Fold this sequence. Notes:
Elements: E1 12-14, E2 19-21, H1 23-40, E3 49-54, H2 58-69, E4 73-80, H3 84-101, E5 105-109, H4 110-114, H5 118-125, H6 129-147, E6 152-154, H7 159-172, H8 175-179, E7 184-185, E8 193-195, H9 203-213, H10 229-243, H11 247-263, E9 273-274, E10 281-282, H12 290-298, H13 312-322
Parallel strand pairs: 3-4, 3-6, 4-5, 6-8
Antiparallel strand pairs: 1-2, 7-8, 9-10
Residues 81, 118, 129-130, 133-134, 222, 224-225 line the site of Fe4 H S5.
Amino acid sequence: MKCRTCRGPAIIDLPRHNANFCAEHFLELCRRQVQKAIDEHEMFSRDERILVAVSGGKDSLAVWDLLLELGYQADGYYIELGIGEYSDHSREITESFARERGLSLRVESLRDDHGFDVPTAAKVTGRVPCSACGLSKRHLFDRAARDGRYDVVVTGHNLDDEAAVLFGNALRWDVEYLSRQMPVLPAGNGFPRKAKPLVRLSERETAAWCIVRGIDYVIEECPMAAGNRHLQYKDLLNDLEEKSPGSKASFYAGFLDRMAPLLASTEHRGAVHRCVRCDAPTGGESDVCAFCRLVDRTKDRDPVPVEMLLSKKARLRLARQGE
Ligand code: Q46
Ligand code: ZN
Ligand code: ZN
């Protein structure tokens, strides 16, 4: 297996590019793809301040590392979600990534700073854990960007994530979600700009970036993700990709080229007034935003252990991982 660029020994094959690459030229390809995404979608400039939402997983650490490599000003922001050992581990990994490189990282904890955690919120609201988790993350990312006067919030969503979400939205023809599924969402109504510079890199490529760069990341999935529909869509798209390399990228690129311009929307949904409690932009009838209402419902409850929310199958899998 030879590198397409230098003919030296290759370390990775990329069927969708119909090529193999050595470590050096693979890193170069990743940098090029990320720069292309940033430029093509006018995500941000080198004068702007970027806040990277980091989770300790490969994608968010890779995007932080890539942005710094490309000469952007990027600080990290981590939210501890209170999901048992998974959260303990991911916080440790994120903090050592930042410490070893002398980077600025802000850490916030749902339990310590807001009086609840994701498992407890799921139990109290009777909804899937990802619902309270997603709501809290969106709210706190936005707030951290406002408080720190950042120009843009960056997340580590990669091509596989975006193609899976697109597949789900297209299955339901959810036009509103489709219209907001762009690699960059402009600031508006008090919300900061949001950008996804990894949309041209697959999950396998971001993992390989971390391995080649010696970045330690959390390998295990969030235990709350079991049964998540996006994971099922990813599996479906991976089957398709194996039979027909490149189909995932062309599905997503086709959406951006041909569908997205028809759906273009610069408005964030329903942001019409400020929460009387925390001043966040919010929609709907209530004077108080959804995050503050979630805090009210959950803050005096006894913490719910993660295991209580897992299916029997997921508990067995976790026990096997720990053996
Ligand atoms: S962390 Fe949170 Fe994810 Fe875990 S609870 Fe769901 S949304 S799966 S990215
Ligand atoms: Zn090479
Ligand atoms: Zn509020």
